[in-house]
What does this fold into?
Amino acid sequence: MRRDAWSRDLVRESRLSANDFILPVFVLDGHGKRQDIASMPGVPRLSLDLLLPVAEECIALGIPVLALFPVLEPSLKSEDGREALNAKGLVPTVARELKKRFPELGLMTDVALDPFTTHGQDGLLDPTGYIVNDTTVAVLAKSTAAQLQSSQLLTTLSS
It folds into this structure.
């Protein structure tokens, strides 16, 4: 059954193509900024202006989705990760611009607090250093709403 291409195609369990891919990108604030990531050779952090050609290439290659991972300046980080709620922050700004220029491009965002907190944890901490789950979930929900509303992704996701 596997000697000829036509029979292999008939019994193949799965088929992988560019439209099955999601391209993860690491974004940082500023203009003309590119930072190499030592732990991931060949993978840079990019400012929005340098990310736009990557998005264009993504579409040309048939990759339907970019996953955005923010890298914040240390001055924007706080114990409670409040920058995650900023509708004019890095992720909403990048998402808004990408959707304006490439409306057909799918966007995924990393709804997490670790890029926004000084302690680097994905949740809010109590005084003993344990994550407070219910409070964290509430903040993550507000962060998601800020990303959706400010980048006008809400209509894209619901249509």
